[in-house]
Design a protein that fits this description.
The protein has 321 residues and is of the alpha/beta class. The chain contains 14 helices and 8 strands.
Length: 321
Amino acid sequence: MRTLSGMTATVASNLSEVARSDAALRAFLHGLPGVDQVGADQRAAMLGTRSIKTTAKAWALDLAIRMVDLTTLEGADTPGKVRALCAKALRPDPADPSCPSVAAVCVYPAMVPAAAPLLAGRAHLASVATAFPAGQVPLSVKLADVESAVRDGADEIDMVINRGAFLSGRYLEVFEEIRAVKQACGDAHLKVILETGELATYDNVRRASWLAMIAGADFIKTSTGKVAPAATPPVTLVMLEAVRDFRAATGRQVGVKPAGGIRTAKDAIKYLVLVNETAGADWLHPDWFRFGASSLLNDLLMQRTRMSTGRYSGPNYVTLD
């Protein structure tokens, strides 16, 4: 897999110049090395065959739990459901106090007030904003959405990019919108959702990753979970390469969050291998890698119990979210 060329790294060192005009931004993004699709697919598949066992597996299960953004994004969400989810996030296994809590709870902005008092200082509170999942509203509405969520207690914002503008080549428009949302976040961290299932090519995933990072993203996220395909290992590989190369070029580290379709502990461990072998061990921390998931936590808990007791507990052991 190719990394940044010398020319690209030189341009990346001066991000204000990269985004000085639509033409300059387009030249930079289209000057990024192309992604070898076959190579990316093969490498992701090969890394997916790696297996870890015993104490390493126990460590990986606990790390994966600590990386979960426990998520509910349904039209039928209620404050009661969100409060129950927060309780589970803080004590995933009430019978085992050694079980770690998750990284964050992720909800719609309207549900932030229900979650904030329960999570304050104990886990992050993430909120999808900018008219998630489509993002088809004016920028002023998106900014109000963000400001409301932050005011009510969210310390992380998951925004969606304007895919129509990106796919039409209006890169500066996407850049300026991300910058505006980043400013509206204040001290809250910004995760930028690329919706990779709509970007069509790995080259577009790499370009969108760099565009989001140049604009100030703290994390880049694969998907809303509402579009298929959502997270996939090859797409996540391309994004991990992007954050690795971005740090090499700029000195700033950015996180990655695959979201949607990751349901089993086995899958989560495959992603941890992918992180270690692509970006490196520095990203094996909840500050730099997350899973956007609802059902994944249950399987992680069941596998954790099986390792500690020798018995597989079954789905009735855990709560249904």
